[in-house]
Amino acid sequence: MTARKGGELEVSVPVNIVWDDILMVSLSGIIDSQVARVTTETILERIDETQAKALVLDILSVETLDSAVANHIIKITRITDLMGCTCIISGVSGNIAMNIVNLGVDLGDVVTRATLKDALQYALGQLGWEVKRK
Fold first, then answer.
1. Which of 2, 18, 73, 108 has the most CB atoms within 10 Å of its CB?
2. Distance between CA 63 and CA 121 in Å, rounded?
């Protein structure tokens, strides 16, 4: 997620197209204010470029979730919603769920799913796609 360039810390956050109108970004490690800012900027640029209607924000590999990170994630969901793009948080482990509750963070109307698979199924359903097994 990060690389050094000319003595300065350069942050790269890939936001990938996973299906028609669906983007995905995976956060990992420790999220600080610089990573949070770059993540938000990159997500907004990709939504503008692609006119995506859904964003899956996978937090499975986030090492710690403090109130600042939780609030940043909530901000992303609100910003994307204003752009007409539903944000689905996936990868909510038991530990992360416990931290969110213990911190008293109000997720309100934030859509969460335990797994990436569940988040993608939700996103596809929101877009009118139906997932069936053969």
1. 73
2. 25
Confirm if 56 and 42 have CB atoms less than 8 A apart. Answer: no
* Nearest of 67, 68, 118 to residue 92 by alpha carbon: 118
CATH superfamily to which 15-126 belongs = STAS domain (3.30.750.24)
CA 63 – CA 67 distance, rounded (Å): 13
Please state, in angstroms and rounded to a whole number, the distance separating the CA atoms of residues 72 and 36: 7
Neighbours of 30 (CB within 10 A): 12
Question: How long a stretch of residues is the chain?
Answer: 134
Helix, strand, or coil here: 89? strand
This prediction has a pTM of 0.85
Distance from C-alpha of 88 to C-alpha of 73, rounded to nearest angstrom: 10
Contact 61, 26 (CB under 8 A): yes
pLDDT of residue 2 exceeding 50 = no
DSSP tag of 1: -
**What DSSP designation does 15 have?**
-
How far is 98 from 102, CA to CA, in rounded Å? 6
